[in-house]
Amino acid sequence: MAGRLIYLIGPSGSGKDSLLDAARTRLAERGCRIVRRVITRSAEAVGEAALGVSAQQFVDMEAQGAFALSWHANGLSYGIPREIDDWLAASEDVLVNGSRGHLQNTRQRYPDVLVLLLTVDQAVLRQRLLERGRESLIEIDQRLARNARFSEQLLADDPTVHMLDNSGPIEQTVERLLVCIDE
């Protein structure tokens, strides 16, 4: 039996990286790998422990078929290494920090994907984005409006999406994540 792709999505600032860090050991105990993404953002940038590459390196990797999934968003390029297909074939579950905008393409390639939408109270999210300091106040407000519309539409259109609220303690979100994966 093949492994399962678990596709974690949510707005920037919802705590995906914090959740993955907090759940890493417990996921590993279940035989679930967390994928390290390739991003055209320097390795020194605050955020996830991704492999930072230049835009040209990314283009070259993409042309060489290095990615099972890739997309472009917010001025950056993101890639999921092709080795996830080997892990899935070896009956390992694989958790990917994905893209809401790339969900349809992911579903086409991996029809049995488990989609987890990480949400957070809008006021909490706004504060996190302000503290991160990557965007202006106008950009943050625009992002919040887009996030709200997207999440509402996704949940209305797709009853198979599991929602995880990350407004409270991270330990609670880890428990809800594990319940969704074990279902």
TrEMBL record:
Pathway: Metabolic intermediate biosynthesis; 5-phospho-alpha-D-ribose 1-diphosphate biosynthesis; 5-phospho-alpha-D-ribose 1-diphosphate from D-ribose 5-phosphate (route II): step 3/3
Reactions catalysed according to its record: alpha-D-ribose 1,5-bisphosphate + ATP = 5-phospho-alpha-D-ribose 1-diphosphate + ADP
Guanylate kinase/L-type calcium channel beta subunit domain sequence ranges: 2-183
Entry EC no(s): 2.7.4.23
SUPFAM superfamilies per the UniProt record, alphabetical: P-loop containing nucleoside triphosphate hydrolases (SSF52540)
GO biological process, one term: organic phosphonate metabolic process
HAMAP family: PhnN
Primary role: Catalyzes the phosphorylation of ribose 1,5-bisphosphate to 5-phospho-D-ribosyl alpha-1-diphosphate (PRPP).
Family label: Belongs to the ribose 1,5-bisphosphokinase family.
Name of the protein in its database record: Ribose 1,5-bisphosphate phosphokinase PhnN
Record organism: Pseudomonas laurylsulfatiphila
